[in-house]
Design goal:
209 residues, 29% helix, seven-stranded mixed β-sheet, three-stranded antiparallel β-sheet, globular, 6 helices
């Protein structure tokens, strides 16, 4: 994990000064429209902070986590005054947060960096943190992504390419991850783009039992 933190610190350090003008993702906009007034939102892997800022502007209480200290410093500076709490946290480990304290856990392209064991433990943490009938919204790279299979294999569907670790999800794998802890769930796979390149994704929207 230390190597990946250095990798992402470097990427965020290289972002230009206009990064704060990036708008929210389509996923954040869609998710925000589905929320009740003043929801408690936890974002895992907030990066530059645009999605977290969007949730806050929509009237929600937001805690946004990232393991990159550089990302957290930049987001805190760019979005000061919105009320978002940006916090540097390695969320591959158990989170020091109260159980049943969030209405939504949101993660866009940030849960696909961990081994199977860590991923399963993290999904368990997400379930613990959500209120009953709370919502998980997660987007990961799919095994249909052009990058899947490239680089050094770490474990099944997980590779290191140019110091970047990626764990690619299948629809079946995503469903298996959330089956025990979440009742109502919708899992979809689709093509798209990420950072200017063709990609493929698996998306899950699930309610805690």
């Amino acid at each position: 994990m230390t190597g990946q933190i250095h990798h992402w610190d470097g990427l965020h350090s290289a972002r230009d000064a206009g990064a704060s003008s990036d708008g929210p993702s389509t996923l954040a906009e869609e998710t925000a429209r589905s929320l009740d007034t003043r929801a408690r939102v936890l974002e895992l892997g907030c990066g530059a902070g645009a999605d977290a800022a969007h949730f806050a502007r929509e009237g929600h209480e937001v805690l946004a986590l990232d393991f990159s200290a550089v990302a957290i410093r930049r987001a805190s500076r760019h979005y000061v005054g919105l009320g978002v709490e940006f916090r540097e946290v390695d969320f591959s480990r158990p989170l020091d947060l109260p159980s049943e304290s969030f209405d939504l856990v949101y993660s866009r392209l940030s849960l696909h960096y961990f081994t199977d064991d860590v991923t399963r433990a993290l999904i368990g943490e997400v379930a613990r943190l959500l209120v009953r009938d709370g919502c998980l919204v997660v987007l990961c790279r799919s095994v249909a992504d052009p990058l899947c299979g490239r680089g050094v294999k770490i474990e099944d569907n997980m590779f290191r390419l140019d110091d970047h670790v990626r764990h690619f999800f299948s629809v079946g794998y995503m469903r298996e991850l959330i089956a025990d802890r979440f009742g109502q769930a919708e899992v979809t796979e689709f093509d798209g783009s990420a950072y200017g390149y063709e990609s493929a994704f698996v998306k899950a929207v699930a309610r805690r039992k």
